[in-house]
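Build the 3D complex.
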Amino acid sequence: AQSVTQPDIHITVSEGASLELRCNYSYGATPYLFWYVQSPGQGLQLLLKYFSGDTLVQGIKGFEAEFKRSQSSFNLRKPSVHWSDAAEYFCAVGAPGAGSYQLTFGKGTKLSVIP
Amino acid sequence: DAGVTQSPTHLIKTRGQHVTLRCSPISGHKSVSWYQQVLGQGPQFIFQYYEKEERGRGNFPDRFSARQFPNYSSELNVNALLLGDSALYLCASSLNFDRGGELFFGEGSRLTVL
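Done.
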């Protein structure tokens, strides 16, 4: 079974500073990897996804993530954070096959931005 | 095009009652999945339906059930509500059921059990 670990429960950065949110996964094969963002009281919005190919993927809102197979990691980065990026971020792994498809999510990292 | 829509957005129930949550997928999407998100946690998989058949089930008790209709919309039912069922229930739709890909989530139904 797959699993996801987001080691940081809460991160605070200043507006304009760079950001890196960590994600480690456990899965036997090459997984499908996702980062979602959730604003308070809202559903999940997809930031970016990795299925195969180039290990550096670009997403919406200036986010990017790098898949590192050797480290089982899929860290999310942004070079300059905006106050509107304050939200909760979830990393997820998807494992197709076996007759169904489901995502396994980490517990999330809450991002606070200091003006 | 409309995204995934869920209803109701908020509801309050008491212990022992029953609740029905509804979801309409994105047009053309045939797979609907349900997730439970307890406060402070990531979403947890409950069910996946495709072409009206259950294709996957998470580690939830039999009090949880779901179905999918011919128009691909779906209902999640929870019987004998417990305080611990208080959560945001998210519906997600996707084009297929098995080959992976992106899930598109609705904004959820927030259930409070008193």
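The first strand of chain B starts at residue 5 and ends at 7.
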